[in-house]
Amino acid sequence: MAAAQGDPPAVARQRVRRALRRFRDATPLSQGDVAKKLGWSLSKMQRIEAGEVAVSVTDLRALLAVYEIEDSARLEQLTDSARAARRQRYVTAPEHRDYLSVGMRDLMQFEGKAVSIQIYQSDTYPGVLQTPAIAEAILTENRKVLTEDERRVRFAARMSRRKNLIERPGGPDYSVVLDEAVIRRQFGGPAEAAEQLEYLAEIANRPNVRIRVMPFRSGHIPATGPFQILDMGEGMESLVLYKETYLRDEMIYDEDEINIHLEVFDELSKRALSETKSQKLILAEAAVLRASAAD
């Protein structure tokens, strides 16, 4: 329960949200009951428990009084987390506030604390695994929905995330399942696409990185779309889910939805090729592209 030292705002907000939900679940009170006792709107309670807003220290103390939580150490821990959760503007670079989505900013904070990350991608490479050339090509393809500044800042963020998550010693355990369509689809020219695949095969040799390919012959794939599950290393309650589509992205904290995606990832992992066979397939496709580029 204790807040870890140096928790970024998104992680601190999640700690407070989960604790408050546990406290209420231990009572017979509904969200509406608590809101009525405190003279709040129901929507305020819902936003707090959904992690959409950072609760103030004053509101936190009011909630803890309703739940009859009197342990001084626990009160201090949650108060510290509530204060940290409201420091978003002080720890986020101005360019990130201006040009990155809220979901992406929160994702980057959770990535910094995660001990393991599970990713499924059905149509493109995860941002942190993209080479500079491929990141530029993919962002350029989205120029109809992204401004030049948004593309510039997103590119810089991807390169920074790659360095912090994949290339630094002691990074989180990084487990990736890619649909075969990802490695077959050509992003950029043949040489750039080959370089991307070769980089993928290279980093798959790192001790904390596991990359597996879901072959076409594996049959039907659950219609979840791409997703990431991040684990802060404190049990089921420390898991968060990130989902991204063409026009929007979001962090999801609902435990039922997280559990569904955990089951999907487990099933995908069982049906994917082994790491060794995946690497051979990736390098074989890279060789085909190299030959094409040489023609």
Q: What is the top-level CATH class of the largest domain?
A: Alpha Beta
Mean pLDDT equals 90
Q: Strands of the biggest beta sheet: in what spatial order?
A: 3-2-1-4-5-6
Shape: elongated
* Structure classification: alpha/beta
What does the main sheet amount to? 6 strands, mixed
Helix and strand string, N-terminal first? HHHHHHHHEHHEHHEEEEHH
Strand content: 5-15%
How would you sum up this structure, described in words?
The chain has 295 residues and is of the alpha/beta class. It folds into two domains: 9-91, Orthogonal Bundle (434 Repressor (Amino-terminal Domain)); 101-294, Endonuclease, Chain A. It contains 14 helices and six strands. The protein has helices at residues 9-25, 31-38, 42-50, 57-66, 72-85, 88-91, 94-99, 102-113, 132-141, 148-167, 180-184, 190-203, 255-271, 275-294, and strands spanning 116-121, 173-179, 209-214, 227-231, 239-244, 249-252. The protein has a six-stranded mixed beta sheet, sandwiched between helices. Helix 1 (9-25) crosses helix 5, helix 2 crosses helix 3 and helix 4 (57-66) packs antiparallel against helix 5. It is elongated. The termini are far apart.
Topology of this structure?
Blueprint: H1 9-25, H2 31-38, H3 42-50, H4 57-66, H5 72-85, H6 88-91, H7 94-99, H8 102-113, E1 116-121, H9 132-141, H10 148-167, E2 173-179, H11 180-184, H12 190-203, E3 209-214, E4 227-231, E5 239-244, E6 249-252, H13 255-271, H14 275-294
Parallel strand pairs: 1-2, 2-3
Antiparallel strand pairs: 1-4, 4-5, 5-6
Helix pairs in contact: 1-5, 2-3, 4-5, 9-10, 12-14
